[in-house]
Design brief:
Beta-lactamase, hydrolase, 9 helices, about 325 residues, Beta-lactam/transpept-like, globular, two-stranded antiparallel sheet
Length: about 325
Amino acid sequence: MKKRVLCVLLTITLLTGCSNSSDAIIPYEDSLNLHQNNLVNLSNIQRGDLFAKDLTVISKDFNSPKDNNLNSLSSLLINVTDQETIYSNNVHERLYPASITKIATALVVLKHADLTETVTISKNASNITEAGAKLCGFKEGDQIVLKDLLTSLLVYSGNDAGIAIAEHVAGSVSAFADMMNEEVRKIGAVHTNFLNPHGLHDDDHYTTGYDLYLIFNELLQYQEFLDIIKLGEYTLTYKDNSGKEVKKEFSSTDRYLTGAANVPKGITVLGGKTGTTFKAGSCLILASKDKDDKVYISLVLKADSSDNLFYQMTYLLELISK
């Protein structure tokens, strides 16, 4: 498929943080300034030599020609190294992000917190009762290093880890959500409204595929983030409320990292984040590189099943493996 560089964006609508807020229009030039010096050249990603460079901008009315192999509600494939859009479909449509929300949580932690601090699990964090919510199983009073909580959040997608992080960093979930929204708007993700650190469903908790690209692209500057998202499994060691050592084994929710899904020849998966709820469907954002060390961000939102999600993501990766 022919690659396109898309650098046409006339306006961006700035949300103030409430779902029913009035909109303000930012001129094209000012919207680009939001991104200046915030995006990444990842050609030396294995050495961690990451630095801000440039941005791939996708116009609001652009969609690639329809591809019947890509039937999710939104999908995206960007060559980050060359700032080229290879495939784009409905990337400006408001959608529910499910646990991909946790990348924004990671951004706040990496910018504002000390990963060596110890976090005490609260009653609130240890008592998530929503049906189907994935939990690490932490108990009230458990003592866990913040970096380990962040790893549990991103690798295993534990929602209790998200609550514990939010309360430790900001004092409450709502205050942490304010920090999330503030940070993502700094990098231009202005069509996003986060209400929690984990992505469990709320009708007023939403984003777009393009905003998720901006957030994920920003995070690839952080070596700590790259070191975490590449893990296929993780052993967590912490202390319970009596001081006794506890060990837990967590596997990644990313099938590429566990070997449950095959990566196309010539492609290396660097890691990413999955998300699944009934209303969000099956979702995945991924960083990968080709045989020439060019880096890509790919995204599939609202696939109708996990199997179909990874089928579509593999199809996107095959576009760059040829």
